[in-house]
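User
Class, as today's exercise, I want you to study this protein, comparing sequence with structure tokens, and judge whether sequence predicts the tokens.
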Amino acid sequence: MGVQGDRIFAAIKERGFPDPWSTFGECLSWESAYAVLLKQTIDDARKGSDGLVRATVSDLFEKKTGNLAAARRLLAGTLTEYDRSGMWRLLDERASRLDIDDVSERWARGLVEHPFPIALLSLQFNWRYMKEHGVRAFYEMTAGYLDGLSANTRRWAEAWAAEEETGVVDRVTTVECDLASEEAPMHCDICKKTITALLYLDV
């Protein structure tokens, strides 16, 4: 076991993760980071009336919104580019040959052991989805997920604006929206690892 996985990891060692997928994955890691910072800053703002802290909340919402918009544009551009180049057909063919067990075994080596290895399970789900529905369909689904994250950010910002106006603390929306964003890297930063396996399969 590990033959495909070892070959893919050798290519990663030499070349790193390919763009645009590396940049896309980083955007979704930032989605989680912004959520953590927002929750912490909102908690601080609730403790007092510091105008600077409240301005920081607004700035973080803007950055979070802009980051998601950039990720969505990047994905839309790549969908179009791969349509023109015929790359989706090549990726579908490679997905059909990918040995998920083999590649998973290699990917699992660097993970800190946990009873529920969410990163590995997310990778396996992605590869199975690609095999069953096609690689482009997977990224169409991803585009819808990004739209959902953007709606989640708007909901959170609206809840915070209402809280500032009324003084009624809304902890539930903060918890829900923070949790949704913290999950994002387990789907979309994992995407760069998912597709890298296909891009480097025959290297």
About this structure: The mean pLDDT is 93. The helical segments are 3-15, 21-46, 51-85, 87-97, 100-108, 118-133, 135-166, 171-199. Residues 79 and 140 are 8 Å apart (CA to CA).
